[in-house]
């Protein structure tokens, strides 16, 4: 440091000051403006990039909201379809139960009709058998009672009395 103080030359100092001033003038004239312009351009491109990023972020938020809305609508549609399918299935079950009940009622009614017809046929057959048996019994009784002449005459007289009264 001491050497610098001892070697000080005012001419060299002014020459260096002059060269520095010229250099400063040249830099301000030719380099300073392009450097500032490039810095401003870079600042503008950074601002544009930040704005684009912000726009992209907003667009992504909108897309996510739209996706959520579509997802919600799809869920509602799915629930609606499931409810309709359940309702249709229940309706089909109820119709099947109703048809089965109608068929069962028809089968029971048909069976009752068949039973009634068979009952009537059985009653007719029993009535016919009873009548046949009654006639056979009556015939046997009449033959037994009318086997002799006295009984035949008494019966004929009874019939005559009934005829005269009528």
Report the mean per-residue pLDDT as an integer: 88
The percentage helix is: over 70%
Q: Helices and strands: which structural class?
A: mainly alpha
Distance between the termini: 184 Å
**Beta-strand fraction estimate:** under 5%
Tell me the radius of gyration.
66 Å
Offer a few descriptive terms.
mainly alpha, 3 helices, coiled coil, 166 residues, transmembrane helix
Task: Describe this entry's structure for a reader.
The mean pLDDT is 88. The chain has 3 helices and no strands. The termini are far apart. It is rod-shaped, with a radius of gyration of 66 Å. It has a domain at 55-137. Helices cover 95% and strands 0% of the residues. With 166 residues, it is an all-alpha fold.
Helix-strand blueprint:
Layout: H1 2-6, H2 10-145, H3 149-165
Summary, kept brief:
Helices cover 95% and strands 0% of the residues. The protein has 166 residues and is an all-alpha fold.
């Amino acid at each position: 440091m001491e050497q610098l103080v001892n070697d000080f030359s005012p001419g060299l100092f002014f020459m260096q000051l002059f060269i520095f001033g010229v250099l400063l003038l040249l830099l301000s004239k030719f380099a300073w403006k392009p450097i500032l312009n490039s810095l401003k351009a870079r600042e503008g491109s950074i601002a544009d990039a930040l704005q684009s990023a912000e726009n992209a972020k907003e667009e992504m938020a909108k897309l996510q909201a739209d996706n959520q809305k579509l997802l919600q609508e799809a869920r509602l549609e799915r629930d609606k379809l499931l409810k309709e399918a359940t309702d249709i299935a229940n309706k089909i079950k109820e119709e099947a139960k109703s048809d089965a009940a109608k068929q069962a009622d028809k089968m029971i009614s048909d069976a009752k009709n068949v039973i009634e017809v068979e009952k009537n046929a059985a009653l007719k057959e029993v009535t016919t058998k009873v009548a046949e048996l009654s006639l056979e019994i009556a015939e046997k009784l009449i033959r037994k009672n009318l086997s002799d002449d006295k009984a035949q005459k008494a019966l004929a007289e009874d019939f005559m009395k009934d005829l005269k009264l009528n």
